[in-house]
């Protein structure tokens, strides 16, 4: 998210100094594990004192920290900035195509994590199986991570995905959406 990949603050043009606490994950954007919390020293000390995860959790392995640092370095190069802009463009393309097909898609338009609402928890496993059968890996999310009737599938786009990959996935998703009756967006009359 953001013009140079610095996240939601950059994306929404909010000064980092205006934020009391920043929190994020390294799993999606960095292909790693773990996350971060950034705040003033008082808040950090309070979290260290009261958080079970800090007190009992595992430390980040050096190889994971190295992965994250290398990603950050690449993002600061001209090629990295171009990749970030390409990813945002592909995210908008993918999201608009899903919406045009009649799916309900939520989230920010430039986000490479594209949640498509399934609503019916009984369709989660079947959607996932049908996608996997067509060599498309998806992340399905249901209760208790979401309310029972807010089941969804998350597509996690990568800069490695080419337009042909997205089009193939969209074709498969379109067919599965018809088979499972998942296209619930209201059609706009022109």
TrEMBL record:
One protein family per Pfam: Aminotran_1_2
GO biological process, one term: sphingosine biosynthetic process
Membrane spanning residue stretches: none
Entry GO CC: membrane; serine palmitoyltransferase complex
Cofactor: pyridoxal 5'-phosphate
InterPro entries the record matches: Aminotrans_II_pyridoxalP_BS (IPR001917), Aminotransferase_I/II_large (IPR004839), AON_synthase_class-II (IPR050087), PyrdxlP-dep_Trfase (IPR015424), PyrdxlP-dep_Trfase_major (IPR015421), PyrdxlP-dep_Trfase_small (IPR015422)
Protein origin, superkingdom: Eukaryota
Enzyme class: transferase
E.C. no: 2.3.1.50
SUPFAM superfamilies, alphabetized: PLP-dependent transferases
Catalytic activity: L-serine + hexadecanoyl-CoA + H(+) = 3-oxosphinganine + CO2 + CoA
Keyword Transferase part of the UniProt annotation: yes
Presence of keyword Phosphoprotein: no
Domain called Aminotransferase class I/classII large: residue spans: 20-173
GO terms of molecular function: pyridoxal phosphate binding; serine C-palmitoyltransferase activity
This protein's UniProt keywords: Acyltransferase, Pyridoxal phosphate, Transferase
Stretches assigned to coiled coil: none
Family: Belongs to the class-II pyridoxal-phosphate-dependent aminotransferase family.
Protein name from the UniProt record: serine C-palmitoyltransferase
Taxon lineage: Eukaryota, Fungi, Fungi incertae sedis, Microsporidia, Nematocida
